[in-house]
Design goal:
Elements: H1 3-14, H2 52-73, H3 82-108, H4 138-146, H5 150-175, H6 184-215
Length: 216
């Protein structure tokens, strides 16, 4: 069973409610040749084949995660509850690690490494950031930054659920592209994003329900 099929099956197991997204165009990078030495022994293999869709997914996740980190980083200064602060700490640690992975993968594959800009994804040759699916607008970020205490908790949960759902959409779009997600590290990254953010959405929905009950 190849990596792509394994990933599709894993995501189908995690959720039966994922919405199908239309495919985007992609150019498959050719598999690297395996040169041999004069003695005929095979040289060390190069990076596994990857597609433009893989590059776009990994690149887009850098800005996407950077915004989540900024949002979560406001918890201590904005009067968040202890439970929300614990969630935010996990988000910051996990997504910083994934940004580091994304930057390393892009460098290793000779690709442009965009800055970790919480305003969005900055493509090569462009100055203006582009919002990826689920990312908050500047107005929403300002609204969250102005909230304090319980109001911050409630708004953070609503906005981060939106944010996480956007990351899941990005995984679905990756899988909709023929040949994408065959590269082992990208496959594992996409699987982790889908699993972690699906789990956190469920947790945040429960926390949001608790807030609504306590307000009644």
């Amino acid at each position: 069973m190849n990596r792509r099929v394994s990933l599709v099956l894993a995501l189908a197991t995690l959720t039966a409610c994922a919405k199908h997204q239309p495919p985007s165009s992609t150019t498959v990078a050719p598999a690297p040749s395996t040169p041999t030495s004069s003695q005929g022994s095979a040289a060390a293999p190069g990076p596994a084949p990857f597609t433009q869709a893989d590059v776009e997914f990994v690149s887009g996740m850098i800005g996407h995660h950077a915004q989540a980190i900024q949002m979560a980083g406001w918890a201590p200064s904005h009067g968040a509850s202890a439970s929300l602060r614990a969630l935010c700490e996990r988000i910051v640690v996990a997504q910083n690690d994934e940004i580091a992975f994304s930057q390393r993968w892009l460098r290793e594959h000779g690709q442009y490494v965009p800055p970790a800009d919480p305003r969005g994804h900055i493509m090569q040759g462009m100055d203006q950031p582009m919002l990826m699916p689920g990312m908050l607008t500047a107005e929403q970020m300002a609204q969250l930054d102005a909230a304090r205490g319980v109001a911050f908790d409630r708004l953070f949960l609503q906005f981060m659920i939106q944010h996480h759902q956007g990351a899941i959409t990005m995984v679905q779009r990756l899988l909709a592209v023929p040949g994408a997600a065959e590269n082992g590290p990208v496959n594992r990254f996409a699987t982790d994003v889908f699993a972690d953010q699906t789990t956190e959405i469920n947790r945040m929905n429960l926390m949001l329900a608790d807030l609504k009950r306590s307000a009644q």
